[in-house]
Amino acid sequence: MTNPQILKFVDKLQLFIENKELIKLTLGGKRDQSSDLKKLIVTAVELKKGYCLNFVYRHNTKDITKNYEITEGIGMVTIALENDFLNAELFSTNENISLNILPNGKAKLKTTASTLQTTVTFAHDKSKERLINPHENIYLRELGISNVNWEIRREMSDKYKQINQYIELLAPNLSELSAIENLHVVDMGSGKGYLTFALHDYLTNKLKLNVKTTGVEFREDLVNTCNSIAQKAGFDSLSFVKGTIEKAELQKINLLIALHACDTATDDAIYRGIKSDAELIVCAPCCHKQIRKAMNVSNELINITRFGILKERQAEIITDTIRAMILEAHGYKTNVFEFISLEHTPKNVMIVGRKTSNKKTDKEQIVNNIAVIKKLYGIEKHYLETLLEI
Ligand SMILES: C[S@@+](CC[C@H](N)C(=O)[O-])C[C@H]1O[C@@H](n2cnc3c(N)ncnc32)[C@H](O)[C@@H]1O
User: Fold this and answer.
1) For residue 288, how far is its CA from the centre of ligand 1 (angstroms)?
2) Is 247 touching ligand 1 by the criterion CB < 6 Å?
3) Domain boundary among 84, 107, 123
4) C-beta 163 within 6 A of ligand 1
5) 45/86 same-domain check
6) Mind listing the pLDDT tens digit for each residue in 275-309?
7) Nearest Cα to Cα of residue 336 among 385, 266, 246
8) CA distance 258 to 87
9) Are residues 148 and 225 both part of a single domain?
10) What is the pTM of this model?
């Protein structure tokens, strides 16, 4: 017969679930010391099929995750308390309940005030439906953005927001790519891969496109880590290659992404996109050293380049304006905008070029207009012009 204290504890669990007050349940203190199972963590989750219980069985070297319907899940908790664990902590928005089963079989229940109020607010924050859903999203967990319960880790919430804002911004342009068969997406300077994974996830799982994604990165450690995460996530058509933006060997690119690639690496990426006739080029430039050094103002603009930080900002504006104009000269309808608020990252300008079949592009006129800007600021060449031999 089940210990009455265990039954009371399980009744409380059921009540918290029914009232949607459950934050989490943890079971620990293994009964059998030789068992590989150390801990069990249970949370309530909203799935397509309805409200369920998510079980994370924590073993010495791995986590195994399972979802159970509510009644079945409560039964599993009762069995685990009778056979596997001696301690349990139940956290709800109202109160916490602990259960300790003693070696003589007796059990003690203790109720204390709730301590995890804030966690549930975040875990159940449905105020904004995100395009990248953390639930059972393996790469987010492997990248450290979510925890074992698929909740966004507090310290990574900015990164998570940034990823979502980035996908939200790109989404209207991405649907235009759906007509392309065997879409090839290349992320130049993919780094830790946060945005590469999210984009691949969105294109394959939300838009159901047939996509091959390649991350190009010269740091071998990052390439290896990202490839191993891609494997764990089951993303067969996502891979990372060690190479440089300038020279990596790549097949035809349809969508080129370069986010925060340093200094002229953004130009190298744009160059590769233009040369590959990419349908969409998206970049968020990083630092802008080349034009700042090349500026040599000796006319009436001299005073507005006197102050270091203001000169730097002008260098940024000139660098990105010329990049956008060069894209236009090559038949890209180009937009430049802020893509995320400055509280998340100071590097927040995004340049998006969409290839058009507009035959009216007056390349010569645009090149002349660029020359006017360069003359004003005493600039000889923008690095991207050098690459394109304009
Ligand atoms: C600031 S990180 C940005 C990473 C990622 N795109 C993001 O936004 O999260 C820039 C990455 O580009 C890589 N990188 C810079 N220049 C590169 C080049 N020429 N070729 C390949 N990788 C490059 C760096 O190693 C670094 O990982």
Assistant:
1) 14
2) no
3) 123
4) no
5) yes
6) 999 999 999 998 888 999 999 998 999 998 899 99
7) 266
8) 50
9) yes
10) 0.69
